[in-house]
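Example record used in the benchmark description.
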Amino acid sequence: KHIPFIPKMSTQFKCMQYIYCESETSSMVVTRADFMRLLEQQPCPMAQIYIDRDGGYVYLMGNHAILSASSSHRWMNCPPSVRLTEHMSDSGSVYATEGSEAHALCEYKLRQALGQNAQNPLESPGGLQYYDNAMEDAATGYVAFVLEELEEIRRTCSDPLVMVEQRLDFSRWVKDGFGTGDAIIVADGTLRIVDMKYGTGVSVSAENNSQMRLYALGALEMFGELYDIDTIAMTIYQPRLSNISTDTISRVDLLEWAETVLRPVADLAYRGEGELNAGSWCRFCKLRSTCRKR
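Model output (structure tokens):
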């Protein structure tokens, strides 16, 4: 396979930023070394690269899950949309890049607070192009919130486990399904999941949120046998809209939802079957401007 040339400098003679897009709505800033390593692992590198040399960005569209957690609101409400948009190009956006940079900063700050090894993205080549006081405040607040959750759990569990940017596999219910959880706190009793949303376009609720439930299923698959988990608390932390939304569900009810609601719809979506359906989930759909249902 041919590995394309990846420039180091933009047309403005600034260091390029490297963005790995795990799914349609989930991406992260990575170092050039990590970017090249990921690129070499892709089945068709030439078709998965988008270079914006004027803007200073290189995007790698990963060999991602067809039915990702981050796009589940759309495919659960409009199952055929997944296959209909599967091969449509997406060059990303300023907002997606800004969100990726905010997540990179949040990850670094949280790992640092937990005593884990972490690379400061501000010190990487090119730094963070959208870094400002708002991003700094958002990341600092996010870390403080996660640490508060951790301290609360330590009152009843002496050995909680904290996972940062953890890959979560929920393919038991969704074929080839996986996603990445921002912060997972695993303990006896209650499993806590925190998802950071940097956007300001819409206030996101955790109530009946399919993305959060898919993360919960993936976490249960990974840790359910090691800890006595009976409840899952899922929190959306959206600082720029002053939105902290939490939904709680029992393990029994989550697994029942997975079998009776999730699995049948996921099977339809994977096959590209079911009915087209317009709604709020069309917001980020690549077919929205031409779909006959809109």
